[in-house]
Protein 1
Amino acid sequence: MTRLRPRVRVAVLFLGFLHGVTASRCAGRACSPAVGNLASGRTLHTQTSCCSNSSLMADDPFLHPGTWWESGAAAAGEDEIRLDLEDRFCLTHVVMVFRSPRPAAMTLERSWDFGRTWEMLKAFAENCSSAFGLPDDVSQQEALCTSRYSRSIPCTGGEVIFRSISQGRRMDDPYSPEALSILTLTNLRIRLLRPHRCPAAPLSSSRGQRNTPHQAPNPRFSPRASRRSPHNSTHTDSSPYAIFSLLARGTCLCHGHAEQCLPQGGQGRLQSGGVQVHGRCVCTHHTAGVHCETCAPLYNDRPWRAGNGSSGEPNPCQKCECHGHAQSCHFSQRVWSSTGGTSGGVCDRCQHYTAGRRCQRCRPGYRRSPARPLDSPQACTRCWCDPVGSVPVRTDGEAAWCHPRSGQCHCKPGVGGTSCSHCLPGHWGFGLDGCRPCACPLTCDSATGHCLQSETNREFYDIPLGGKIPDLTHFHPHEENTSWSNELSISALYYTGKCSCKERKVKSVSDLCRIKHSYVIKARVLSAQDKGTHAVVQVKVRKVLRSGLKLLSQGTHSLYPLSWTSRGCTCPVLNP
Ligand SMILES: *C1O[C@H](CO)[C@@H](O)[C@H](O)[C@H]1NC(C)=O
Ligand SMILES: *[C@@H]1O[C@H](CO)[C@@H](O)[C@H](O)[C@H]1NC(C)=O
Ligand SMILES: *[C@@H]1O[C@H](CO)[C@@H](O)[C@H](O)[C@H]1NC(C)=O
Ligand SMILES: *[C@@H]1O[C@H](CO)[C@@H](O)[C@H](O)[C@H]1NC(C)=O
Ligand SMILES: *[C@@H]1O[C@H](CO)[C@@H](O)[C@H](O)[C@H]1NC(C)=O
């Protein structure tokens, strides 16, 4: 036990080191899962089998160097080894070590579509033109057939090697579409078409032939007195093919976005020490899918891209800004072009009564809660509109409409307040028809409409309808101020017989300036309205001849001229 201790510690340290490295391999970079033997842990289908299990081909040649698979006696001398993968993988190369002499003719094929169609990756024959009618890559580079691995010697331990990306070919980016078209597969098939006989001796004594002078066999695979074989059989004519090891090196297909893969459909963590290359990527860079081939649900602000294997750029997916109100978003080409290619994400199913591409607005019937930040679940609260004072919404009588930002409801005439719950100043009689204007010079009781006698300290400009130029009302009339009864001080609009508005033409500007007005302006009257207690005159100011305390600029303004004189008449008519 004590002798083992140091070794254990080393192993633990090594694992810790590995873990530290892998934790950051995808950080800010394109990354790839470890390469392994795709055949490990999977069933290799063969047509015949004489006396050994086909999985013995794919076991670790270092741990089990003396194990092999042996074909049965096939009528036509043909056999086939098929590896069915449960998904798409990348294959980088295939290395086979034969116990028998290598086949005189064999092919290596792949399928992308789970075995429906097959494509030849490479043909192997001693004479390519006679066996397959193909040129030989010994004489013609990149040819589909090769004669390099089909000689009958060595009688055992001979290798057959295939590289997906041949050495002459430049492939900078393994995640590029052209690289993937070369590397990916769902099935691998090795067709053993014609066996060789060992030329120097009968096959049954092949063990003695292993150190032929022509080509040294791989010493790792020299059978050692069949110490592991359950059958102490030697190689016979009845098994034309025997293979020590089949290495199909590859990785799971993750487009540069993962460094680990898990079993398909399996949950949980990778079993440590597992030799099998699994197919489900553990995606990083905010990607998702078995092959990290899409963006994660909330990361579709840009189109998905594979990592760049040559520059190392990870090309991660970008998060959509949904202010915490959506679980997913989708990419919209239209939005992408309208933003000039900066953002194309549209949030899906905005929650918490929000709406909009980024869940940035409140839904109809809800208003922004000013005290809450936009990403709060309580950012939007239901509108509350007084059913009496607000204009009813026709749509299915749900929430009464209010402005999604201010919460202002649609009020009936004369009604004011955010929720339309009371009469505007100068109005009375809150009810289903709204409020009526007071028939008074100043204001009236909002319930009864009775005029209130508060003209002395009541200032008309204290009115919330804009009130841009309150200075205008600091005007003390020079006319004689006889006191008028309340009855008399009533709008000319309602009691036209009691008073009338006089129109006076101003002869010249200098005349007008001589009169003590706060403002003298040249303006066009756009509208004039008697609001009961006050008048609102919309003017377009063209020229300011004299200005009051508050500066008046050119443009459109609402004025509140002193509409009520001591005579009690509203005459919201300005001189030109
Ligand atoms: C106008 O009335 C005020 C009080 O309301 C009074 O102080 C002032 O003397 C009066 N002016 C004239 C000209 O009668
Ligand atoms: C081959 O070996 C594998 C693993 O050792 C085993 O699961 C499988 O059942 C064997 N197959 C046969 C036909 O013996
Ligand atoms: C291959 O076979 C063809 C015809 O079968 C023959 O003409 C050619 O010489 C052979 N090539 C070699 C290298 O043996
Ligand atoms: C091989 O098998 C035969 C019988 O089938 C047995 O007598 C012999 O000892 C075996 N040889 C070895 C090396 O196991
Ligand atoms: C990957 O990066 C290289 C070098 O920066 C660049 O030339 C190439 O276009 C990139 N590939 C893709 C698919 O963007």
Protein 2
Amino acid sequence: MWFYLIAFYLLTHNVQAQFGDHKQYSSYVTVREGAHMFYWLFYTTANVSSYVERPVVVWLQGGPGGSSTGIGNFDILGPLDLSLQERNYTWVKNFNVVFVDNPVGTGFSYVDDPQYLTTTNDEIALDFVELMRGFYRNHPEFEGVPLYIYGQSYGGKMAVDMGIRMREAEEAGTIRSNLRGIAMGNAWISPVDATLTWGPILLAAGLVDQRGYENIQRSAREAERLFNEGHFFNSTAQWGLTQSQVFAATENVDFYNILTKMPSRFNFGNIHEFSRDMMIRDMEYNPQRDMSLETIMNTLVKPALGIPEHVVWQASSRIVFDTLRPDFMKPVTEGIEKLLNETDIIVTKYNGNLDLICSTPENDAFGDVKYNAAFTRIRDVGDIFWWFFPSSEVDKPILLLLGGIVGFPHSFLLNFGGLGPLDLNLNARNNSLVEDFHLLFVDALPGTGFSRQDDAFKVSNTSDETVDHLMYTLQSFYEANTKYEDAPLYIMEQGDGSLLAIPLTIRLANDTRFSENIKGLFLGNAIISPALALTKLGFYLEELGYIDGLGREAIENFSNTTSHLVSRNLFDEAFDQFASLGEFVNEEAGAIAVNLAYIVQKITRNSTGWY
Ligand SMILES: *[C@@H]1O[C@H](CO)[C@@H](O)[C@H](O)[C@H]1NC(C)=O
Ligand SMILES: *[C@@H]1O[C@H](CO)[C@@H](O)[C@H](O)[C@H]1NC(C)=O
Ligand SMILES: *[C@@H]1O[C@H](CO)[C@@H](O)[C@H](O)[C@H]1NC(C)=O
Ligand SMILES: *[C@@H]1O[C@H](CO)[C@@H](O)[C@H](O)[C@H]1NC(C)=O
Ligand SMILES: *[C@@H]1O[C@H](CO)[C@@H](O)[C@H](O)[C@H]1NC(C)=O
Ligand SMILES: *[C@@H]1O[C@H](CO)[C@@H](O)[C@H](O)[C@H]1NC(C)=O
Ligand SMILES: *[C@@H]1O[C@H](CO)[C@@H](O)[C@H](O)[C@H]1NC(C)=O
Ligand SMILES: *[C@@H]1O[C@H](CO)[C@@H](O)[C@H](O)[C@H]1NC(C)=O
Ligand SMILES: *[C@@H]1O[C@H](CO)[C@@H](O)[C@H](O)[C@H]1NC(C)=O
Ligand SMILES: *[C@@H]1O[C@H](CO)[C@@H](O)[C@H](O)[C@H]1NC(C)=O
């Protein structure tokens, strides 16, 4: 008997194809003649009496042409990860998530003929409204349930026009959705502006020298010119060229994390293809991972979901990108204003600080903070990085902050972590010293902070030599900032920094080029107690989130012990103890692979020398 019941059930219910155990639904919606869009819904696993108690979140990948059902789902936030293991932090735990392969032609979405591809952001938005009409036809229980559209990168640009078109349809009564918000993550909302920020951010981060900066800016301004004159297609091409300028000037910086480099084996042959691929990545470049995603999608997911045989999944659709090239550089800032002015739709924007393509400055995180920064090249030694934040009035004194011999980069720690205009979250600092001084941070030793060393094993062992380099660096600073050549100069140091600050002050005072400028030296925990300087270490590491309170206490204990040895004149023992600092921080204090010589990066197991 039960067998017949089941058979009856199967006959009367359209059995849903499914991949994995999560409650889901996937379907095509024909959004226009010849245009078939695919979506994949995962019902929330939240402990609620009905899933409609939770909002619907639509996830859109960037590109244009990046696939949400693949990248967004398996690589970012779906219920299964790339190893097909449960993802702990999947958004499905809280929301009903819909991955949409859009624009048509992306992922499992397809067109019957290339003429049906979209050419503008508005066409993309209208297709999306049609897709959502199909969605509510399939799932009428979601009508009225709060809806949020999350767009990543180019997806953020699409989300703006989708918000506008969805709201119009809601007001016209042609769709029964309840759109509450759109969100733009590292979004491509003002492309020309974004491209113009690449040079400054790389210069500020010390990743390019002045010439590299100028090459990048020249190229970016050309993209701007072409755009302003209405040559949109060529402006996109020029944007691609600007990317290659960036790679040339930075030796292949990783666009998605400017603190790292792209693998050198990468082939930079075709600039156009390369820049397009970078845009679609939405993540670090990793061909290996793409392979596995393409295998998962085409050999496992495709048959499980009953995707038509002729549709071949690709992480990024080149034809979709190419068809949108004339639209690529157009901003959606007016659309954002419209949403803010005329609707109650919540508009959210979030950004990672280390993303270059959709960079943070474009998104205003540096706000009004003024700065300039550069490398000073010291021949056969390396490049010394300095970062200058002028105060609001020119006649304020300059405060020079040097890194110390332990290798803590002031450009980063003392600046963001202590007294610069922005704090570690890039929020304006209330009591920054920049109100009273022009701040000049110098990563004094090549190999610390952003300063680079030509040869990692050739470490200068005399402070004389280092002071030579600093004199030269200061000279180049003044050459670049002639406006400040008469400003009084003070040097401020604490802890180990005094080792350099004292001889530098003496040298400046005895050099006619600078003797009029140098007015004073502030010494914090002076060099007489290098061990005491170490007491700051716990604070910094905790502030950076590398260790917890217990780790901080352990480091304090460590430095107290060193201090104690020093106070008993046991210098050799103290030095041995100091030499084990890196190991201690990582093995005993709970930090994981912290590199004390370059604190924004991790050490690898095979690192030699310094922890
Ligand atoms: C789900 O929620 C109900 C009611 O709040 C609660 O009694 C139950 O323990 C929850 N189940 C789980 C697995 O958390
Ligand atoms: C996921 O969560 C479980 C239980 O909280 C934990 O045991 C597991 O280590 C987590 N996995 C990852 C990859 O974080
Ligand atoms: C646009 O690029 C094409 C191909 O490189 C070139 O032939 C054309 O002259 C360019 N147009 C403008 C306005 O720069
Ligand atoms: C939004 O409102 C501001 C202030 O009223 C106005 O200046 C601006 O033009 C409006 N923008 C749009 C796109 O409607
Ligand atoms: C900044 O200073 C103002 C006025 O002194 C104070 O009200 C405010 O709480 C401070 N903000 C922070 C984040 O400390
Ligand atoms: C500094 O290093 C050089 C070789 O790099 C060595 O010859 C010299 O003795 C060292 N000086 C001191 C004071 O250690
Ligand atoms: C000051 O400079 C002169 C000339 O260059 C030099 O002879 C002298 O030793 C210097 N004094 C100090 C304290 O460095
Ligand atoms: C501090 O260090 C000493 C000597 O290594 C050790 O005996 C003691 O347990 C440590 N205390 C803490 C709080 O870590
Ligand atoms: C380290 O020394 C300071 C100053 O003597 C003291 O206040 C602190 O409690 C000590 N910390 C540890 C962990 O022993
Ligand atoms: C690290 O060292 C291990 C063992 O010496 C070696 O097998 C491995 O290939 C090394 N990895 C790298 C990235 O050099």
